[in-house]
Specification:
Layout: E1 25-29, E2 37-39, E3 54-58, H1 60-63, H2 82-85, E4 112-115, H3 117-123, E5 129-134, H4 144-157, E6 162-167, H5 170-182, E7 186-192, H6 198-206, E8 210-214, H7 218-232, E9 235-236, H8 242-258, E10 266-270, H9 275-290, E11 298-304, H10 309-316, H11 328-340, H12 360-369, E12 373-377, H13 379-391, H14 398-412, E13 421-426, H15 434-441, H16 445-451, H17 473-483
Parallel strand pairs: 5-13, 6-7, 6-9, 7-8, 10-11, 10-13, 11-12
Antiparallel strand pairs: 1-2, 1-3, 4-5
The structure holds ligand F0G.
Ligand F0G binds near residues 142, 144, 270, 274 and 276.
Length: about 475
């Protein structure tokens, strides 16, 4: 039976008889000085004792995980099994919080680590290697499906019937997709008004999610969805949910797999709500603890300049993990300043337009684990980098290109060496947000100014402009000869 007495938000869930693995996997407060633990069958997004975030932790001694990462290669020949096909669940032994027969998969994680010589040149990685982990190939077109598969599995394990999230678009698209494919739950999504790109909104609407458009931005929607899910007992799938991050660890497992288990020098990732960076840090810490890798890569988290809380707190105000003793006053003072100035997040990279990242503390821990750095990049830098990624054939949405823009910045600062092996995570597909792409390449100055100029973007250095021609054969032939 679920521990309903210890958690007021489980009213809607009925306990199921097959809750197993609770003795080898559990939830634990991330603050070592607290360390309160909770069963893996409980639904909670914070520690009851101190209010901090929770981890899913495993008793590796008893679980006896594989002693070589190459163990996972044995699954390649069993792709006919859904759990071996899934790029998340073929690493089941590294996230074994649910019984295998409760796992929900829709074939997520069939993603690529691809080299892109053009992007490497642009970034300035010369002699080393620049690789792009292209998460746009997921079923809903973003990395979110990695985490959603895990959170959804947990929700299914405890028999949830409704699941909710606040979203800048991709989490909601992913949740809506899992609900519509599996019919196991109803999706309830909270979005900021006018804050979500049409590509993502169209997915949520098409997949039938109950879509709540809040008069406010993502930070407002996030605060509300926490209240509402608590009040109505709806399962929350935002990345405050520790099970989400278990799925997102596998992005790094696939990077290692593609590198034949060699650890790269750098992982560069955009930072929004900071779930990915937190999950990556946890993945590497666990692999090291189990003895599957002997060193961890360095981590670079890249904020957009218009949504740069992590950059401000980490690089300018010196906020650190500090063994779990985070100086909360630094964070709280900064948030009070934001409120006093009525400053809202604002960037063309709408996916990461977030000022109050819910995973801040976990991300600080990841930066500690991975000797990390944080940078901010302008919308101009993001869009130029995005155009370079597109020219290399892996179209991504603006937020994703923050990783490439950030890598370029770090090379120019001498932090990343040109001889390093660098992995930039491309978090979402190009078609998620065509408005920014088309405005970047347009010949229509009004359109450029309306969409991009208002954000301080002045030029489109890598624009591929459409050629306007009259509808006449000889004129068309002449133009092709002139431009090709
Ligand atoms: N890239 C894309 C394409 C995203 O959709 C997000 C987050 C991020 C990067 C940032 O990742 O939160 O793990 O730091 N999107 C969330 C959403 C907030 O609601 O879809 P993070």
């Amino acid at each position: 039976m679920l521990a309903a007495g210890r958690c007021g938000i489980v009213r809607e869930f009925r306990a199921i008889s097959v809750v197993t693995l609770t003795d080898v996997a559990f939830q634990r407060c991330i603050v070592p000085a607290c360390g309160a633990t909770y069963g893996v069958d409980e639904v909670r997004v914070a520690c009851d004792v101190c209010g901090s975030l929770l981890d899913v932790v495993y008793d590796w001694e008893r679980l006896k995980p594989p002693d070589k990462l190459s163990f996972f290669e044995t699954k390649w020949s069993r792709r006919y099994e859904p759990l071996s096909l899934s790029g998340v669940w073929r690493f089941y032994e590294l996230l074994p919080f649910a019984p295998r027969d409760r796992v929900v998969t829709i074939g997520e994680g069939q993603t690529l680590l691809q080299s892109s010589p053009g992007v490497a040149k642009y970034v300035g990685v010369d002699g080393g290697e620049l690789l792009l982990q292209y998460e746009g190939l997921n079923p809903s077109g973003s990395f979110k499906d990695n985490g959603m598969s895990a959170a959804f599995t947990h929700a299914h394990t405890i028999n949830a019937k409704r699941a909710a999230c606040a979203s800048t678009g991709n989490t909601s698209a992913s949740l809506a997709l899992y609900c519509s494919v599996t019919k196991l739950m109803r999706a309830v999504i909270f979005i900021g008004s006018g804050k979500i790109s049409y590509g993502k909104l169209s997915q949520a609407l098409d997949f039938g999610a109950l879509t709540m458009q809040i008069a406010g931005d993502f930070d407002d929607a996030m605060a509300r969805v926490k209240e509402v899910s608590s009040q109505l007992g709806i399962y929350l799938v935002n990345s405050v949910n520790p099970f989400r991050l278990e799925g997102q660890k596998t992005i790094m497992f696939r990077v290692l797999e593609a590198l034949r288990w060699e650890v790269p020098d750098w992982i560069v990732v955009p930072g929004g709500n900071l779930g990915n960076s937190s999950a990556f840090g946890k993945a590497f810490a666990e692999l090291k603890e189990i003895g599957l890798i002997d060193r961890v890569p360095r981590l670079a988290v890249i904020n957009a300049k218009g949504a740069d809380t992590l950059y401000e707190l980490y690089e300018n105000r010196g906020l650190r993990w500090n063994g779990g003793q985070i100086d909360g006053a630094i964070r709280d003072d900064y948030y009070a300043e934001l409120d006093a100035a009525e400053k809202r997040a604002s960037t063309i990279a709408s996916a990461i337009e977030i000022n109050r990242p819910v995973n801040l503390e976990k991300c600080l821990r990841a930066l500690d684990t991975c000797d990390g750095v944080v940078r901010e990049v302008t919308d101009q830098q993001i869009l130029d980098a995005k155009a370079q990624v597109g020219a290399g054939g892996l179209g991504c949405e603006p937020a994703s290109a923050a990783s490439v823009a950030g890598a370029k910045l770090l090379v120019s600062q001498g932090v990343i060496a040109p001889s390093d092996r660098v992995v930039c995570v491309l978090t979402g597909h190009q078609l998620k947000d065509p408005t920014a792409t088309v405005a970047y390449h347009t010949t229509d100055q009004d359109q450029f100014n309306r969409v991009l100029g208002s954000r301080g973007v002045k030029r489109a250095a890598f624009a591929n402009r459409a050629v306007a021609v009259p509808n006449q054969l000889d004129e068309i032939v002449k133009a092709i000869q002139l431009y090709s």
